[in-house]
Design brief:
The protein has 179 residues and is mainly beta. It is built from one helix and ten strands. It has a single domain, classed as Immunoglobulin-like. Strands 3, 4, 5, 6, 8, 9 and 10 form a seven-stranded antiparallel beta sheet that branches. Strands 1-2-7 form a three-stranded antiparallel beta sheet, with no helix packed on it. The longest helix has 18 residues.
């Protein structure tokens, strides 16, 4: 009989303890922070890659866009035929520190670069909105070349946007050496 009472107390204690760990209460506006970054050299006729990994949090789970997300407000072109920045959900600005220490903003050499900013899309993290999300997101920037021989280090300013077009804060990565 004593053994059953101990089990009942243990189960009751665990049930009470689990109630202390409720669902996370994050803002519906996405939040990001820097996690890691790596330069991956592509070699002959292959693209170099800078892999940026971010931590994210979102209160209502509406992060990411699928290929089928092309109706308003996510259409590629606005009604007047101009570029629609809401087609994309991540923006990356690049900065270079040259050997002489000078830091300059530089445009990304990519077809998705407009006015010096790289625009991209990352896929939906969950199919539908379903509550708070927390995790990591890796985004790869690819190019046949990133920088000329005078560049020694680069860093990036990154921002994401959810499907309600709410933007995260902009974060700045540390500088990374480029080979």
């Amino acid at each position: 009989m004593k053994r059953n009472n101990i089990y009942i107390l243990l189960v009751g204690f665990l049930a009470t303890l689990s109630g202390c760990f409720g669902k996370p209460n994050f803002s519906d506006t996405p939040s990001i922070s820097y996690r890691t970054m790596a330069f991956i050299e592509g070699g002959d006729f292959k693209q170099d890659t800078i892999a940026i990994t971010l931590n994210y949090r979102d209160g209502n789970g509406d992060l990411g866009l699928n290929a089928a997300d092309t109706n308003a407000p996510y259409q590629r072109l606005s009604s007047n035929g101009s570029f629609n920045p809401d087609y994309f959900n991540i923006t990356v600005d690049c900065f270079q520190r040259k050997a002489n220490g000078r830091i300059d903003s530089i445009p990304m050499p990519s077809l998705s670069s407009i006015d010096g900013t790289f625009y991209g899309r990352f896929p939906r993290i969950r199919p539908e909105k379903s509550g708070a999300l927390e995790g990591t997101l890796r985004y790869d920037l690819k190019s046949f070349y990133f920088f000329d021989d005078t560049v020694s280090e680069v860093c990036f300013k990154v921002q994401i946007k959810d499907r309600n077009l709410q933007k995260s804060e902009r974060i700045i990565t540390p500088f990374i050496k480029i080979k």
